[in-house]
UniProtKB/TrEMBL annotation:
InterPro entries: DoxX (IPR032808). The keyword S-adenosyl-L-methionine does not apply. It is found in: Membrane. This is DoxX family protein. It comes from Kocuria sediminis.
Length: 91
């Protein structure tokens, strides 16, 4: 997998990498899709919190590899903000 793009996958087998990738894609879809469709109002905040829960692991992996940790920290912050705003729009 490392030869085809992502640099942080050398430390992991293919299974966990695919699981994390699938979780991130499904979380992004869960954050983006429900508001325009007008249904499943709690799905977006829940998906955003799930994405935020993944990011500490990304920070640890990037820190161990001595790579910048700002991108996963920023994504965690944006996910939390999206969750809060999503809950506020429901209430």
């Amino acid at each position: 997998m490392a030869a085809s793009g992502p640099t942080g996958v050398e430390d992991f087998t293919a299974g966990p990498v695919r699981l994390i990738d699938a979780t991130e894609v499904l979380g992004a879809i869960g954050v983006i899709l429900p508001p325009p469709l007008g249904d499943a109002s709690l799905l977006s905040p829940t998906a955003a919190l799930a994405l935020a829960a993944l990011m500490p692991g990304a920070v640890v992996v990037h820190a161990r590899r001595e790579e910048p940790i700002v991108p996963p920290l920023a994504l965690a912050g944006l996910s939390v903000v999206a969750a809060v705003l999503g809950v506020l729009t429901i209430a």
